[in-house]
Every structure is written in C-alpha cells, then in structure tokens.
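Exercise 3.2. Students should predict the tertiary structure of the chain below and write it as structure tokens, then compare their answer with the key that follows.

Predict this chain's 3D structure.
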Amino acid sequence: MKDISLTAAEAIVRYLIAQRTVIDGDEQPLVPGVFAIFGHGNVTCLGPALHDAADALPTWRGQNEQGMALAAIGYAKAMRRRQFMAATTSIGPGALNMVTAAGVAFANRLPVLLLAGDTFQSRLPDPVLQQIERPGDPSTTANDVFRPVVRYWDRITRPEQLLASLPQALATLLDPADCGPAFLALPQDVQGEAFGFPARLFSSTVHEIARPRPDMHQVAAAVAALRASSRPLIVAGGGVHYSLAEHELSAFAARHGIPVVETVAGKSTLTHDDPWFAGPLGVLGCEAANRLAADADVVVAIGTRLGDFTTGSWTVFGDDDALQLIGVNTARFDAGKHLGLPVVGDAMESLIAIGAALEGWRASASWTERVGPAASSYWDAIDALANPAGGMPTYAQVVGAVSRLAGPDDYALTAAGGFPGELNNGWRSREIATFDCEYGFSTMGYEISGGWGAAMARRRLAPDGDTIVFVGDGSYLMMNSDLYSSVLSGHPMIVVVCDNGGYAVIDRLQVNQGGAPFNNLLDDVRTGDDGEPPRVDFAAHAASMGCRVETVASIGELEAAFERVRGADRTSVIVIATDPHAWTEGGAWWEVGVPETSDRASIRAARLALDAAKAHQRKGV
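Answer key:
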C-alpha cells in the first residue's frame, strides 16, 4: 500500500473515523463525535481536520472545557463503554479545565479521549500566550498535570509517533481492566507537520470489548467458599453494566437463591421488582440491605472497587473471621481487596463459570426467605418518605413523584449533594442500565453536563425515553452552561432543580459532626450586608439559555409540570424549593475526619462516636 501524506492532526481524525464497533448487532462508529472548544493550539490544525470530517466525525461545541469532557463521560456511561467520545481544547487554561473531568473518568473507569493543544515543540516562539514556564525543566507544560489522572499519557513531538501512540491509547480505552481516560498533548507546530503514514493505519477496524475468562483455579476456590456457605450475598457494581451481564446476574441469583444488593454505580443492574433485589448497600443504602450484609458469611463483590460509601467505611460486613469476600473483577487490583478470593475476569464470563461449577447448589432456605421481606420493608419505608405530607417539599418526595411518572425508557442521572442518597434509595429502576449517579468522584457540576452527553446516547438507545437530570442549587451554580449546549445541539433533557438554599448536605455533615453551621447554607455565609442573602432565579436563568422553564411550589404541581414537558423538543427545567433539613437517613456509618480536641462539646462528642465506630471496622488490606 502507498503511504498517505497527512498532517498529524489529519491523521488523528482519519484514524478515529476508521475505528468501528458493534452495538446490538449493528456496526457503528467507535468514536461517534468530538466535543470541542477551539483556541490557539487546536483551532488552526485540528480544527480544519475536524471540519473536513463533517458527519463522519461530528464536532459539538461546548461552553466549558470541563463540562464538555463531563458530557463525554456521561455519554460513555450511558453507552456502557461500548462507544466513547473525544474532547479537544486549546493550550493552558483550556486544557487545565479538563483535569477534573479526567479525574472523574479515571475514578469511574470510563473511556474518553482527551486531545489538548500544547506549546511549540520547537520552542522558538517561547514563551507563547498561555504558556507556563518552569525554570529548570523547559519540557514541562501545563499538560503534565494530567499524568496522575489518566490511564494513558503521551506528548506527540513528531507526527510519526502517532503510529504507536494512537493504537496504544485506543487499547487503553477499550481495556476492560485498565479502562479510563487517554490523553494526548499536541504541540501546535507538530499538529501541522506532515508525514507519510502507511495506509493500513486508516483501514476500517471493528472492535469488540474483550471478555477475559477467569482462571479456573480461582473459580474453584470461589465455588468451594460458596458451597461451604449458607448465607451468601452478591454486591453488584458498575462492572456488571460494562460486561452487559445484568440478565446473567439475575438468572444466577435465581438459580442459587442469592440476594443481590447494589452499589451506587451498580444501580439498575436489576429492576426494582426483581425477586432477588434486596436494595442498595452502604452509606447511601437501606437498612434492610445492610442487615443482610452484616449477616452474610460470603460476599461476592462483582465489578466494584468497594469504595467507602459501599462498605460503610468497612463496617457493613460481619466479623473479619466469619466473612469470606470473593472479588469478581476484570481488574486484579480490585479483585483481591481486603484479603478476598480473587476471580479476575469479565463479570458475565465469571458468573457463567462459577454457575456451571455450582450446579445443583442453593443457599439455605432460611436465608433466601429473607429477601422478599427485606425488599418489602425497604420499599415501604421509601414510600412513606415519598408521600407528600404537607410542609415544604423534600428531596425524597421530589424523587418519588418523578419516579412514579417515569417510564422504562427514561434515564435518571445525578451526582453530588443530596440527590445520590435520595435517588439511590428512592428511584425505582424499571429497566436495566437506566441510571447514572457519578459518585466515584462525587463531582459537583457533573449533572447538567453529564446529562447532555447521556441525552445524546439515549437518543440512539431509547429515542422514546427522556433523560431526567436531578440537580441541587449548589451544583447548578457550579456548572450550568451545558443547558445551552443541549439546546444548541438539539439534545433535550428534563432538568429538575431543587433549591434548598445552599450546600445543604454538607451543612448536615458539618452539624452532625459537632460543627457550627458555617459557609454552606446561604443563611450562614458572609454577605455584603446584614440583609437577606439574595437568591438566584433559576427559572429566569435557564430561560435565558433557551430552555423551557416551570417553577412549581408543591409535589402536585411538580407532577403536572413533569407531564407537560415529557417528550419536549428542547431542554426543560423545573425549579422547586425544597426543605434543606429533611433527608433519607443512610443505612451505614461513614468515617470522616473529626478533631481529637476541641473547645466545642458537640465536636468532642462526635469524636467519641467516631472512635467507638472505628472499633467495628474490618481490618483487611
């Protein structure tokens, strides 16, 4: 084959276009688009290459570099890692704005390709606009700060380096164990330099996500532990989604009589009415699920990194000596946590292998009989909290109202603040893989941007459903410009804004640990005068960005407004004032730092409670 003379920027674009994948039997682009904010460093070289790509690699304009990269993450999550987006920025502050999003993708094991402009490799014009000069190390640029928060990092200093770097970046993005963000720094002079690339680099290539099979010795050890148990429990994490193993999980649980509890990332691995679903686990979980965890003698953790909100800072499980953990995970690092028996492999393949070796075995009847009552008690408690009872609406009531009206094709999304706990408990998943709570990094501001990306994905997957974003006033103020992005690009979503007057959940944490209310609720912040703190008109703000808006004062009004905006042709924002002090109580303890000494009696009491709780922590590694 003849070589093709292309600039480095043109080669990147042509390579991405050539990558294909298979989704539900149909061949589709692996990289269906690029989010871009242009500036010097990417507008004059990568910009024309993306322009010429047209619909083969469509470009979507963001309003904030962090936001557009979060949208790419929301897209990848909704597609269950079967497709991913790229995001490109200019030099300096444009690139650095993406660092938080890189951390989100890294923590959540989600693929996104980050392409950041960089300073001149020749250094002849140095220092250029937005360049950070580091005396003693002239090769360092702002882009080096991405190194700790990406799975693959490279600076392209010659066009021919793309021959090795592009396939390696792609392999990282597709790796089920090491999946995460890949980053390429692109010096602006190198972007425009040409090289004779071999034509085979741009051959159309169809990728399917690998399914690593587990080692049979590890399977045998896990099976032996299960056969010796009488009270096994499955903890379903996000890896179940990425393996597309939800139906296999449900069948496995039914065959062997094992209750299933979900992590935040694993929510909607089972539908809410699955007979083996026993509720959400951990700090944001329910009492019924946590009781099962405390009584279990074997816990099979599938596709989860066992974060502290899942484990209650390692207090939800039973005594160290009485409990055996089994870690099923593509990542060796996660599979063997806390002295667990590792089963390193794809979730679906591992369930099939373990299930075959467990043929004929079932958990004790006395244990399996606890699942139905546990689920019933859980939903009864949720329904009681969600029932409007007069007074100011609560988050639980808002979630309950929307959940009652939502259909199986609707997709719920949230992130930080009070909504993770309320949705993890109160949202009824009517279909699998219809829920996204970014809680691996707990990123305020993810909600609207991630919702924009999810709305793009859901248009492909479930065109008759709505993407429903739940966001508090604090996260709304932190990042909201992708409301305009969604209107501009024609990807509508429904955004429910709960205004409770500040960072109410952090105020709750502050007060519950003995502190004085300070700098969280607007009533407790320093202001310019002694008057009432000014409040934001969220409806007017959203309307200024082209959204349909509704302001409601009650749950009944919320339900009516939600019905009016369903299926709308542009993003709709519903604003409701909510109680800053009414929350669904979590089912487990969570360790936070509390001072050992203090003049405040309430802080000293909180420290005593901390020390008492730590006595029950699991001592694994």
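Discussion points: The CA atoms of residues 21 and 207 lie 5 Å apart. The chain has a mean pLDDT of 96.
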